[in-house]
């Protein structure tokens, strides 16, 4: 600890790699400055920005899309018997929710050892979450031939008309934000057309029974008005945003990861990009010259609105479209998310499974006796929770051992590059889904 009570983490050379503010003090400061909801969404008119058919896209909005939406896990799900009553396993994954201020202590939930798929080589044991995030390392047990390959969808969504002209990038971003508000996630908001936008539009049409005028700027502006106003709002960077905690860098070596206090963000801009569902590069692009490290800086961010809510009864993990769709008991579509679902070399399951348990902010445990050999690490390591952890901020365990739906530290790659069998979503999409599912929900893997 330093003289201010902050936790300072240094490496073996004496270099500071992380500074962690006392959590309770940060929480008190946030309440004192911003009240219960936190954040600082500015209602004052911002300076003109990119326009949508003559409209100022970067206009005011009062809702904080990442603030508390009223969700309470204990209230909504009860005492969570999945964690307390199920048999404990000796598998290499440990997952447990981080407690909110004043909440119950952390509870652990462990997942069983792997029993498939074809990777790693026969005769070894692994957890699918470890396989899913295996680093391609010459010293590892085997290689990861499919990881990082560009995805080729076998059943892609029909391409949609794209906005054109000098304001095309702003209009595409507005389209992505409109889709996000509707629960039809386009993944990261980056002002670019692509397969993630196409599949989100197709899901929108399934949910609402009408086509979306993707190439009509005026019609898109009217849709935005009907769903909460301009696509972009102004946000003021807070003391809590600047305080972090942050790490200087996320190492690739698991031994170094395990020494960090959290798998935190590295930068304020990275934190805010995830909070507002944006590609970090795009966030910086629409805020040229902004000082993200200064409290009080006003920036333009996506006005994505509140999370979609509902009770999910069935999930379709569509391998051909690389998309997860969540349905209510009456068969109506609640939400859809671009996803990364395995590969031809290391496929995800087929058929029907169920949700077993849900872990928010899971730890990740590496055990070289049952996991792959990563670098020179030969001891059990516990990698702490955080958005840059191997499975992101969410782990939805499935009834097929070691398979799950989880978050990712690399949201820009969702739906674009292969994984190793699990179902990856962006952290924000995985969180939204996790709050709508319970143990026993059906998950169907569609070819």
TrEMBL record:
<comment type="pathway">
    <text>Cell wall biogenesis; peptidoglycan biosynthesis.</text>
</comment>
<dbReference type="GO" id="GO:0018104">
    <property type="term" value="P:peptidoglycan-protein cross-linking"/>
</dbReference>
<feature type="domain" description="L,D-TPase catalytic">
    <location>
        <begin position="313"/>
        <end position="446"/>
    </location>
</feature>
<dbReference type="GO" id="GO:0016740">
    <property type="term" value="F:transferase activity"/>
</dbReference>
<keyword id="KW-0808">Transferase</keyword>
<keyword id="KW-0573">Peptidoglycan synthesis</keyword>
<dbReference type="InterPro" id="IPR005490">
    <property type="entry name" value="LD_TPept_cat_dom"/>
</dbReference>
<dbReference type="GO" id="GO:0008360">
    <property type="term" value="P:regulation of cell shape"/>
</dbReference>
<feature type="compositionally biased region" description="Basic and acidic residues">
    <location>
        <begin position="70"/>
        <end position="91"/>
    </location>
</feature>
<dbReference type="InterPro" id="IPR050979">
    <property type="entry name" value="LD-transpeptidase"/>
</dbReference>
<dbReference type="Pfam" id="PF03734">
    <property type="entry name" value="YkuD"/>
</dbReference>
<feature type="active site" description="Nucleophile">
    <location>
        <position position="422"/>
    </location>
</feature>
<feature type="active site" description="Proton donor/acceptor">
    <location>
        <position position="406"/>
    </location>
</feature>
<comment type="similarity">
    <text>Belongs to the YkuD family.</text>
</comment>
<dbReference type="GO" id="GO:0005576">
    <property type="term" value="C:extracellular region"/>
</dbReference>
<feature type="region of interest" description="Disordered">
    <location>
        <begin position="37"/>
        <end position="166"/>
    </location>
</feature>
<dbReference type="InterPro" id="IPR038063">
    <property type="entry name" value="Transpep_catalytic_dom"/>
</dbReference>
<keyword id="KW-0133">Cell shape</keyword>
<protein>
    <recommendedName>
        <fullName>L,D-TPase catalytic domain-containing protein</fullName>
    </recommendedName>
</protein>
<dbReference type="GO" id="GO:0071555">
    <property type="term" value="P:cell wall organization"/>
</dbReference>
<dbReference type="GO" id="GO:0071972">
    <property type="term" value="F:peptidoglycan L,D-transpeptidase activity"/>
</dbReference>
<keyword id="KW-0961">Cell wall biogenesis/degradation</keyword>
């Amino acid at each position: 600890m330093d003289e201010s009570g902050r936790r300072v983490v240094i490496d073996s050379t004496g270099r500071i790699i992380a500074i962690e503010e006392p959590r309770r003090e940060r929480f008190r400061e946030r309440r004192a400055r911003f009240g219960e909801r936190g954040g600082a969404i500015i209602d004052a008119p911002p300076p003109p920005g990119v326009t949508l058919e003559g409209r100022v896209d970067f206009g005011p909005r009062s809702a904080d899309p990442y603030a508390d939406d009223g969700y309470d896990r204990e209230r909504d799900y009860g005492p969570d018997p999945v964690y307390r009553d199920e048999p404990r396993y000796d598998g290499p994954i440990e997952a447990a929710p981080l407690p909110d201020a004043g909440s119950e202590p952390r509870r652990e939930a462990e997942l069983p050892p792997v029993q498939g798929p074809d990777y790693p080589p026969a005769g070894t044991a692994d957890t699918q979450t470890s396989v899913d995030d295996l680093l391609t390392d010459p010293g590892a047990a085997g290689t990861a031939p499919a990881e990082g390959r560009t995805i080729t969808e076998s059943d892609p969504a029909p391409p949609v008309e794209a906005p054109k002209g000098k304001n095309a990038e702003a209009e595409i971003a507005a389209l992505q934000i409109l889709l996000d508000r509707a629960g039809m996630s386009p993944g990261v908001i980056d002002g670019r057309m692509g397969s993630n936008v196409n599949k989100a539009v197709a899901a929108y049409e399934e949910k609402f029974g009408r086509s979306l005028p993707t190439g009509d700027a005026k019609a898109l502006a009217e849709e935005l008005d009907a769903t909460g106003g301009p696509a972009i709002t102004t946000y003021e960077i807070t003391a809590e945003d600047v305080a972090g905690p942050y790490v200087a860098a996320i190492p690739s070596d698991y031994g170094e990861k395990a020494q960090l206090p959290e798998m935190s963000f590295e930068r304020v801009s990275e934190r805010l990009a995830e909070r507002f569902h944006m590609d970090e590069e795009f966030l910086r692009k629409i805020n040229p010259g902004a000082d993200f490290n200064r409290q009080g800086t006003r920036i333009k961010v996506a006005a994505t609105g509140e999370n979609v809510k509902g009770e999910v009864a069935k999930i379709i993990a569509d391998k051909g479209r690389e998309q997860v769709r969540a349905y209510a008991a009456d068969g109506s579509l609640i939400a859809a998310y671009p996803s990364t679902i395995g590969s031809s070399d290391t496929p995800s399951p087929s058929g029907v499974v169920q949700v077993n348990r849900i872990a928010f902010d899971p730890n990740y445990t590496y055990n070289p006796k049952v996991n792959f050999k990563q670098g020179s690490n030969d001891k059990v390591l516990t990698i702490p929770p955080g958005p840059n952890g191997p499975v992101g901020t969410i782990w939805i365990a499935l009834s097929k051992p070691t398979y799950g739906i989880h978050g990712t530290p690399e949201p820009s790659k969702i739906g674009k590059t292969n994984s190793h069998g699990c179902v990856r979503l962006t952290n924000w999409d995985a969180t939204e889904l996790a709050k709508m599912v319970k143990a026993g929900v059906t998950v169907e893997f569609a070819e």
